[in-house]
Amino acid sequence: MIPTFPAIAWPALLPILMVSGLGLLLLGAGLYTDDEETLGWGALAGLIVAGIVTLVLVGGESVRTFNGTFALDGYALFFDWLFIAAGALIVLMSMGYLGETDIEVGEYYALLMFALVGMMVMAAATDLIVIFLGLEIMSISVYILVGSWRTQPRANEAALKYFLLGAFSTGFLLYGIALIWGATGSFRLDEIAARLPLADESTLLLAGIAMLIIAFGFKVAAVPFHMWTPDVYEGAPTTVTALMAVAVKSAAFAAFIRIFLWGLAPVHADWWVVLWVLAAATMTMGNLLALAQRSVKRMLAYSSVAHAGYVLVAVTSGSADGGAAALFYLLVYMFMTVGAFGVVAAIGRAGEPLENIEDYAGLATRSPLLGATMAIFMLSLMGMPPLAGFAGKFYVFSVAVQQDFIVLAVVGVLNSVVSAAYYIRLLVAMYMTPEPAEAPALGRRPYLIASIVIAAGFTVLIGVLPALGLQVARLSFLSMQ
Amino acid sequence: MNVLLSMVVWTPMLGALLILLVPRDNPDGARRAALAFSCLTFLLSLTLWLGFRLDTAEFQYVEAYAWIPDFGIQYLLGLDGVSLFLVLLTTFLTPLVVLFSFGDITERVKEYFFFVLMLETGMLGAFMALDLFLFYVFWELMLVPMYFIIGVWGGARRIYASLKFVLYTLTASLLMLVAILYLVGIQAESAAMTFDVRKLYDIGLTSTEQMWLFAAFALAFAVKVPMFPLHTWLPDAHVEAPTGGSVILAGVLLKLGTYGFLRFAMPLFPVAVAAATPLFMGLAIVGILYGAAVAMVQPDLKKLVAYSSVSHLGFVVLGMFALNVTGIEGAIYQMVNHGLSTGALFLLVGMIYGRRHTRLIADFGGLWKTIPRFSAVFLVVTFSSIGLPGLNGFVGEFLILLGTFGRSPWAAAFACGGIVLGAVYMLWMYQRVVFGPVTHEENAALTDLTRREIMVLAPVVTMIVVMGVYPTPFLRAMEPSVEALVARIEAAQARALPKDTASQQPLARSARPFVQGGCAPAEPEGGSSSAGALAGSLDDTPSSHQPPADCATEVRS
């Protein structure tokens, strides 16, 4: 029998194909040049074109292809655009950063693109196996990226740690997929959703859900599966840390939300309690541990754990608004976190990471621009109006309150107070501590500064005019079915 | 559509952004720009008063634009008799703070004035916002500049003080945010989602819901006021803040707490207010007496003034929770008074600190001989703070006590004790600083007030006298709004608790005729006014208070 291949909707695959092609091109070009600016401009141009194509596709019909395992709907496009924007900002950062490292430039950019492809596959997948494929494409690229600064022992340590724990969590994912298949007889989320109310809510299903929560808990760095986060974030090159903190986390949430708020939505009553506890623990532990850090990079790592907790609050709420709030939160979180890591990269210099809070003393006098932008990112992460972080938290907590998760909302806002204590510490260092006499001079880094300023601009803009972003997030989520 | 309110709110912010463009080596440019923009804001706000209609309790100059339509969030500004004078107080004090800071702030001048003007926008916006979301945004927006003003330009323990200030305020206001979300969620069950407070006034809440929501709102506002026992951030913040920061903090920021009660917490949750009144009156009295007692033993001038704020704000809370027109009008009047007199006290302390670099009372003495002009202004302001008849403080305190008496004579009696204590610590402090022989040589060589300092103080002293002698225009502008507010709360309470309010209403009404026409302070004989008698007997100064002629006749009739 000749196998019949399903029809493929090629236009719907355009963003993924373009970024894949870009990755291959950069890999080839990397053989001939290792100038981070030339290759960077190429990567940036390619991503901008892909971003424009993605925007053009927005508003079109939702397309399902590959036998219903892959969807190009508003939801996928939202995340595509988020990944491309994060990727472009990180490329811009890298153009000012790689020169001080021993990283192989061509491979770095190529792997960055492949990681983005994996994320885009995860966001578009409507089938558990395809989600797994996307996760692997992304994860393997990122494992290598973490260790790409080969001469740095701490990067090697981070890569090994991330790989071992990542592989471990992938095992949980596959186990969970298998158990859910056993309970429902399908890998496809729409079929799972259709069969679930009928299926016997067996131990098999519940065990499968638990496995999925563990696997995604690792990827989004939710407590108690966050142990790897500070070490890996600290050891990785700062640009890769930014990629992990925003894009990898968002991709994991993209798949997580699609599975739980669509495929497993009919059994919301079975899993919300687990996520409730997870969300509360993640916010609380993330913030408390961040309080104790001296290294700004580790502090931001724990802060990213805490922010995963805020997104989990939205997912726990379970309604369409909950999904939309999670999407919007990930969008604002992307800009402020990329920007914050950009400043971390801008402070450090070759051989000297300068990541401790003491290294930020008097930054506002040494560089008013870096000081002011970092202040914006910190205040936004804290949730101060009128910055984007406030709009995000506002949406998340308003959904939680309206779905009667009031205690969770109260835990969340009290966590914001705890987080204020450590974000403020950075403000104290930058603005209220005199700069040390032998403060190292800051290099001229136009690309890094450009990426930081763009991120700060969006952080302010989305904060002041959140209406458009909220509406896009809502429509994107609703287009998922 | 009217854009006057927006112009008042955003002019300072525009100035702040322009100041950022001034080159770093031109601090005078930043100073002049800040003064120009704050004066412009004041002139614009005066037109608000000129065009203010006295015949309506509705919000005036209303501006409404959709901001986040999905949530029914609007850019909604409005002004009524409750907020009018608080807005004017803000725009009045800011240029004076800017002018004073010309000499006081010499480092990072540009950033300082940026934060001061940004703070002004935050405060004005919070006073005018009628949309709860917008209010919350402005409310938090004030926190950041104040944090930087204390933390960057403050004294030795500034980092501790500023962090304490932020964490106290943030904890309470984030819980208020949850309450706002819950409130709006209830409203959204029956109608389109909105954050418009005018529509939220009328939604039906169960009494349990009212209790919880009121608790969350009241916590946020009580921290800001600050009410005993949530006041502990205040002495630290005041003592460490630079003078300009202290003036704004005491003069305006604290009023946002009491204003929040009047605009949001009380009309939104009237049933809970009825239940909480004894508690809040009790806390207010404890605050009055405790603040006064602690102020009395302070060796540091600035700390003394800071604790006196706790005491004075206790009076304001007491007047508000009297829940009658007299008490609330007195409370609003006293908010403005406190802004003027305490603001002036902080300015005077800042001026003497700039000369002597000490604020300890023991380091002074005999200033009258060396700097008489300073001492004379200090005397007027001290009397205003005590509540001497003829000056503004008397009018406010009198109305508050009158209103409180209508609700609870015992509370009024205790509060009178607070006035005695107030006279004791202020006069004792004044005596030790100004009278007696010159005990420290440094004090003999002090220079008297400079021209710029006189320009800073003269407007405040003028207003202290004007508001003491002729309160009618102020009270008349407040009256319709306050009456509507009291009527709204009473009606809601009557619906929910028919028995309780039946016994309270006659009292509330009986207090009302005193202020009709705004002639309350015109106490013809003087003897029946316990406040006046106490203040008069303690300061040994003949009362210069002459009731305005038209008022006197009205009261006699």
Please write out the topology.
The complex is a heterodimer of chains A (481) and B (557).
Chain A: H1 10-29, H2 36-57, E1 63-65, E2 70-72, H3 74-95, H4 105-124, H5 128-146, H6 153-184, H7 189-195, H8 203-220, H9 228-235, H10 238-263, H11 268-291, H12 296-317, H13 320-347, H14 363-366, H15 368-382, H16 388-402, H17 406-432, H18 446-464, H19 467-478
Antiparallel strand pairs in A: 1-2
Chain B: H1 4-21, H2 27-50, E1 60-68, E2 73-79, H3 81-104, H4 109-128, H5 132-141, H6 143-153, H7 158-190, H8 197-200, H9 207-224, H10 233-240, H11 243-268, H12 270-296, H13 301-321, H14 325-356, H15 367-370, H16 372-386, H17 392-407, H18 409-434, H19 441-444, H20 451-469, H21 472-496, H22 498-511, H23 530-539, H24 549-556
Antiparallel strand pairs in B: 1-2
Structure, explained:
The complex is a heterodimer of chains A (481) and B (557). The mean pLDDT of chain A is 89. Chain A is built from 19 helices and 2 strands. In chain A, a hairpin with a 4-residue loop joins β1 (63-65) and β2. Chain A is mainly α. In chain A, α2 runs parallel beside α4 (105-124), α9 (228-235) packs across α12 and α15 runs parallel beside α18. Chain A has one domain (10-478). The longest helix of chain A is centred in the middle third of the chain and has 32 residues, at 153-184. The relative contact order of chain A is 0.10. Chain A starts with 9 loop residues before the first helix and ends with a helix. Chain A has a two-stranded antiparallel sheet. Chain B is built from 24 helices and 2 strands. Chain B has helices spanning 4-21, 27-50, 81-104, 109-128, 132-141, 143-153, 158-190, 197-200, 207-224, 233-240, 243-268, 270-296, 301-321, 325-356, 367-370, 372-386, 392-407, 409-434, 441-444, 451-469, 472-496, 498-511, 530-539, 549-556; strands at 60-68, 73-79. A two-stranded antiparallel ribbon of chain B has the order 1-2. The longest helix of chain B is centred in the N-terminal third of the chain and has 33 residues, at 158-190. Chain B is globular, with a radius of gyration of 22 Å. Chain B starts with a helix and ends with a helix. Mean pLDDT of chain B is 83; it is low at 500-557. Chains A and B meet through α16, α17 and α19 of A and β1, α5, α6 and α7 of B.
